[in-house]
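Marked as duplicate of an earlier ticket. Keeping the data here for the record.
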Amino acid sequence: QVQLVESGGDLVQPGGSLRVSCAASGFTFSANAMSWYRQAPGKERELVAFISSGGRITKYADSVKGRFTISRDNAKNTVYLQMNSLKPEDTAVYCCYVRVNFRDYWGQGTQVTVSS
């Protein structure tokens, strides 16, 4: 079955950097686009970044453009989100997402907290 397991969340100071990872299994990773979403307490889930199956196309929310970078390693079945210049408003649970055979799958998420 499809599994998405995030890791790498942490407490980081404003202006700092962090990389979160999502290890995927149960489907042909290299054939599927991947996305990162985030959800802060009391707020709706927000699409943060998207990457095509081959990695050539990436898209970002306006709020993270120029600060976050999505990438993938198809040999490791892993998608990454590099986050730089972090702000307190980036605090959220970050989840990866994939759509496989017309079904949506989410990981359990990893907590990122930006605070001094």
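See parent ticket for discussion. The mean pLDDT is 97.
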